[in-house]
Amino acid sequence: MSPASVGGRYGIRTGGDELRHKRIPKRKAVLAGAAVMGMVATGVLLQQANASQSGTENASQSPAEKLSAASATQVVEGLASQLGDAYGGAYYDEDEQQLVVNVVGNDNDVNVEVRRAGAVARSVDNSTGELGTATKTLAERATMAGTAWATDPKTNQIVVTADRTVTGERWDKLEATVESLGAGMARIQKSTGEFKPFAAGGDAIFGGGARCSLGFNVTTEDGSPGFLTAGHCGVAAESWSDAQDGADIGTVQAATFPGEGDFALVTYDDPATEAPSAVNTGDGQTVEIAQVAEAAVGLEVSRMGSTTGLQNGTVTGLNATVNYPEGTVTGLIQTDVCAEPGDSGGSLFTADGSAIGLTSGGSGDCTAGGETFFQPVTTALAAVGAEIGAGGN
Length: 393
Prior knowledge:
Layout: E1 23-24, E2 28-29, H1 57-61, H2 69-83, E3 87-93, E4 98-104, H3 108-116, E5 120-124, H4 128-141, E6 147-152, E7 157-162, H5 168-180, E8 186-190, E9 196-197, E10 203-207, E11 210-214, E12 216-219, E13 225-229, H6 231-234, E14 239-241, E15 248-256, E16 263-268, E17 278-282, E18 285-288, E19 291-292, E20 300-305, E21 309-324, E22 327-335, E23 347-349, E24 354-362, E25 372-376, H7 377-384, E26 387-388
């Protein structure tokens, strides 16, 4: 597949000629990641547990189990429902290979449950329920283009970001809304860039004058081969090619943007297309994608895009809401990975071959940096009824 560089219905460039969606006999498609946001380095930061409450020392201070990022995610899924109102989020410490779980209150039984699960209990003030209520308030009072917010379990707060377009009365309104949430619930940070979708990606794909990136090859419910890309790419054009002005290779079957996500399912027009589960990282190298995983704050990830190639970074927030000029998108992953126009739709993944996200948009570039956002692969797959690779491999 020929490289693509610039494009995008939204005036976004793509990057990295290194990323090419190779077409070979039987129209074999090599998964090329392309995300509007740069690759997120797969490392998770550890927060030190606060001094335990009286009677909780055995539960929170005894050595925790060594966990992989994948197994830590599974532990979180179980604990979140078990702990109920006491649950305040969790994050993975890659250096220590430990899962840190935020706990509200001083119930020793809760700390014991966390320890039994192999994690470290950390005392915090805000539960996920309270943080969720605060995000609803933000959505009701402060939804405006150029703003975004996400939950950061490391600080147990909502991080609200305003890009350079948020000034004057709009800034005052945003600041007043954050203050109304109460001390310690949220904080504001400024971005030097401007939030927008990045139409372009890993192995470049072209449609309707836009350039995007292929995210991950998938198998649809009826067994047909297809791939995921960004929703804002899917609504920009119905048919997509692997070469500029080339013949169509795929047709959009479903697309969500804006709204509850930024993802699209494209099926290959040729049912004989082989769609291997791998990401083309350039220079003839690929990363085999063996499974799908949830993001975790602190997780080091990689992003492949046709504009900027392979980039690294870290997940900095979850359940992010981004207010693009085209509309509000919810449920995204926030990262510090760089990305540029044309990286949209590309793959966000980990070194061990876990599919994490699809590039949505951001505020910066790969010179100055900035925030970047990704659609979780897990929710995209569930919504379109597909699975990674053949039979989920």
